[in-house]
Protein 1
Amino acid sequence: MAALRSNVNSKVKGHLPYMDYSSLFGSQGSKVTFGSEPSPHYTTKHLSPQQEERFTAAVDEWFANGWLIEHNPEVHGKPACVLHLMAVEQEHKLSTPVRPVLDYRHLNRQLVSHPGNDSPVCAESLRPWRSREDEHELLDIRKAYLQVHVQDDLLRYQVVVRQDKTYVMTRMGFGLSVAPTVMDIIVQYVTRDMPEVDNYVDDVIVPKPLSSAVSARLAAYGLPTKPAEDVSSARVLGLQLFTEADNELHWRRRDGVQLEVADEITRREVFSWCGRLTSHYPVCSWLRPACGYLKRLASVESAWDKPVCDTVVHCCAELQAMLDKADPATSKWAVNVEARDCTVWCDASDVAYGALLEGDGAVVEYRSWLRPASDRRHINVAELNAVLRGLTLATDYRVKTATVVTNSKTVYGWLSARLGNIHRVKTNSLFNVVVERRLQAVEDIVAETGMQGHLRWVPSAENKADKMTRVPDTFV
């Protein structure tokens, strides 16, 4: 991926970004072929007449802008890969309610991608964005992927058949496995001398005074943006922001997310539904462990597209009823906790580990990790694991002062003795080495980050992380 970054940087010129894909295909790339002559592989049968009209209009725009041009064998060579043209409904997108996408699955199998730390992760971008205290605006690049050119000798890998004619796609399409990383690298390069600017793929957050300058810079590189939106009323990385009665900025799910489970419940539908419910939301409370356990139940016997058993259907109905009463996916937006006192609540059960970070007068983030079904660790070791994971959560937000809360008197004693240098920790069990290594990991995290604070014990009933370790009784 370092080579890709260098390659992209060298190709970003004064006007349009020009993406060189050659390093993505490896030495065998030019020899790869797929099937025989191209044939039409798209359908719009599942669309309503209005949606099909929108789809046709979007494809016509591709032709009008020169993104789809007629295939010329003498110029482009023999077609090497036919990409199926598909329609994806996204009613929440006012600008593109029906998006034409290309089926890149065949091509993606040929790409050698080692993104390392360069791959953009939505949850990781959310944390620093929520820590910004000044007024900011959001810039969204228009047709972002379609602004990136494909090298001429690689157009034969993007062949599209429509109405019995063969075309080639001259721009990077939605669905290419490396497309998000490519777009992220390009935007980072364009804004490389603007440290106040941050981006997640094609979404760019900027301080209000710099909004016009950043928009002009992006436009100069062929990346036109939509009008800037004030963060206080925008949809930011899938979260809808709004102002509460207390004049504090909060977030909730964006409009249009289907929270109801489908009538015909298959394993695939369970996974899709649970993904919509929890996704990248930083606060989901009890919903995250419940969804994780529900996916485990659905995976026991069911094939992906066969109906699940009655037990899973009943669990889905119970979870739906709980969700109808109250959706836990909401919290305060601006939470700059780096320089403030925070509380890290940690807990464990035989089902899951849980951690909760509180600071700046609000819940910052919940996390939950299901324990393997075969996990037989002693509960004291599990509670120590929960503390370790809670500290990891705190370090993700660069917390400097924290109170770590646990409901295990044993773990409280271990940590007090080790971090306070009171006495050596001794355990008369087979887990002695395991406990020692985890205590050393806690000590290393505290020393490396310079974190200050203290420990606190509370009864289990008062531990706010307890809900992150529980699932409904009928699930177990």
Protein 2
Amino acid sequence: MKAQTILRLCVCALLFFSVVVADGTPKAKKVRCKDKNYPDCYKTQLLCPDSCLRTCVLDCASCQPVCNASLALTPPPPPPQKPLKAMKVRCKDKKFRPGCFNQQFFCPSTCPRSCEVDCASCQPVCKIAPPVATPPPPPPQTETSPAKAFCKNKLYPQCYRQEQNCPSACPNQCEVDCVTCSPVCDCNKPGAVCQDPRFVGGDGITFYFHGKKDQEFCLLSDSNLHINAHFIGKRNENMRRDFTWVQSLGIIFDNHQLYIGAMKTAIWDSAVDRVELSFNGEPIFVPETEGAEWKPKTAPEVSIRRSRDTNAIVIEVEGNFKIKANVVPITSRESFVHNYAITSDDCFAHLDIGFTFFSLSNDVNGVLGQTYAGNYTSRVKMGVTMPVLGGDKDFASSSLFSTDCAVARFNGLPDSSMNIASGINGRGVFFKK
């Protein structure tokens, strides 16, 4: 009897001990992902594993509970961001109607949500320059340091040979006005053809003529002078026109043909001459020294002279015309500001030109020539920031030395009824016989 009692007491004690042990075992902790950057795992609830029932955390990246809290609490890398959708922008300035006004563009990839339309150039531009991981390399010296110029007229001793910096509006080339002893931009004078071609007519009115890349256009046609220009350029996918520049000129007078052009250049160096010349099909070499001159034996009235050691030429035919031509590149700053997208394989070297004419007739025509005609009335809309002159079909030529444009006047003979037209001293001067 006593043995049965002892056995019952042992069983009860064992059952009591089992209950106590079971009640004392900790329960597994519930954990959640609290990082909204992981939407697939966010707020998911899981139990800690047996190895760490109360000391785990949820790793949102793998969406699994882990015991090593130091690893789990380390901030995971952010999820990849979706590319921003390019915003659409329009030109809202009615002054540019019907050209660029209300045209729609997409913001460039460098600023897909923060751009605006520059109505003058009719292209989207970033409001703020895109950030760069490392500072860009300094631009070449030719882009930061303006060109030098000085007065060459000994009649002004107080200014003669005094060196001046070209102004910011024309850092690559300028002239010094000996009277005021100050630098002036060649491209602001009547008869100038510069940049994306910006013309200043014989009447002093500025206008743009874009033409088309890789084609020829008649700049001037008169009875004994015909000048064609070859345009180079790039197409902007967000625009309806090409960016264009004058790469070369084909000049026809009497029975002669004269060529001046800018050679294709990858990396610009102002000390390297990129001028190409020919007369009646024969190449011309002019020593790379300021003041060096070349004259053909068959036409002594023609002179070709260097106004600087390199990349600056003055062509003059006595009694007919004078041309100042400078070879210049598209700089990285110009490319960024105007969104030209110039690459390292071609800096689009081109000509900045200043024309002076001495014996034009009243019937002269051409993109620039028409502005010297006796009965010319400007078709340019005044007050517009970027007045554009059309008429591509009227001025297109089949080749650089063709005289087959629709407005051609050339016959190789001087006209008995002429005006002496000059682009000097501002607005152009006309003396009609």
Protein 3
Amino acid sequence: MMAPVPFKNENQNLKFCTGTSYTGKLDSEGQMTGLGTYSYPNGTEYRGHLKNGQFHGSGMIIDIKSKFKMCGYFINGKCDKYDIFFGDGLEYNQENWSYCTESDRRFWIEINQGIPAVGETFLTNDKPSRIIPPGHYDTGEGFFDPKSDSIVDALSGKRIRHVCLHERKRILENYRMNQVDFEMKHNLMKEVKEVDISTDSWVSSDGK
């Protein structure tokens, strides 16, 4: 049986085999405790209170690259209440969320800078909208590749993470795709509808 690790009042700098790291205090059992920072390999960090090796108390999860922040209160590793702040200043509130809904479909950039002149349009909240590689979908986090079911970094092309079947379905049905692919898909659907219409007409005229 291993002897308990004595309580360290000063901050520790630990690195784990998963690629994560921790800067903060440890309790007598060697568990993360008090105020600390837990960092993930992708650049995401948790900054806040911990207890028994888990997020516990007020804390913030932040993506250093995009400046996305989720500020909340954690209980034994689970987030109980939270508010989300995007890197461009947009704030998400659980109780009153009206952004890009049927009542107001403006992007955040249009809310702040006004709607562009006639003839111009915003496809995304970015100006200009980034170019999507062929066969990919823009998820905001990166580009989704249906062949590998992975989201890749928009700049480096490196794989960020794998998506589940539910997320894959949502992306394919709702997210912006490469313009050439979109036009091909649109034309194909148009041809299918025309075939359906002509088939219905033929059947009805035959009386069967």
Protein 4
Amino acid sequence: MIRYLLFFKYKDKKGSQDLTEEVPEDLIGEVMSHLSFKDIIFGEFIRKGSFTHLMKADIEFKDGRRYKVSVKLLKDTEDFKVDEREEKCLLDEARYMGTLPKHDNVVTMLGALTEESPVCLVFEFCPYGNLKGHLLAVKGWFERGSHSGVQKEAMYQQLRQYCMDVALGMAFLEEMKCVHRQLSARNVYVANGKKCKISELGASSAVLEDEEYEVRTKGRLPIRWMALESIQDCVYNTKTDVWSFGIVLWEIFNFGDEPYPEMTVKDVIYELQQGYRMPSSDYSSGDMYSLMEQCWQEDQLNRPSFIEITEILENNICGKEVRAGTSNSKSSNRDGSHPTETVSAL
């Protein structure tokens, strides 16, 4: 049975925004050695997928210790029965995630139960959900009333920080020679401190250490986030992830809206082949949109690497104005630490 890494203890304090805290390292081995499926108390669904579900859960032990986590397990209903292929994919993901060093901008797999049924992967709990849902909530707050210039600037600064968080996570995966293949705002989760973390790396388990990966299996594809060469030739590599990152930037500055609004998937493919790219958002700076355009270059050799993207964003975040008429942007550290001034909705 695979058991390793970290757990996060639940802090049930009324009014607390940070819902979890890290367990001291000297307790990790003890926690994992006692973990079994019967200790998991499942809560509500975080995400329902085609083959797997992600659920909120508590792990409770006889001595009263209680840990808040999220658990990924195979979908198994009367209408859908898992087979050996789906189970192998989840096991491969467990082994693959176990090879990755911990990074602040990648969701940590805390452990896995592989010798019991159902097989499940245990991850750190991100209390603010996925980035897409979080942005949609922020959009509702933003559209409900008038806000001061300071509040707006704090919001724009936080949006930029989300971009940096995702870039730092992807730069780490790039260094690990990992191709994500499914990068989107819904596959990024927002943890304590509003820190964004890359998630859903299951599709990457088949791509580790490959320079280029050709998909030959059929299935539902996230066309709106895919690079043109991925759509046309089913080829994935780090530079196709860069294209997807450009789409995530667009999602962030459009508060979680679906890319290519009012277009069908068929229209998206046709328009991309004709050279179309989405226009800038009212809320992104010219520099930020220029970065999106670089990510969407037809020739992937002209797209920046994620290391280069973090450098571009660092220059954009530190002292750059988000919109005309705003100023006093607060600088942000390269390690992903967040600006000190924020607004409650973010």
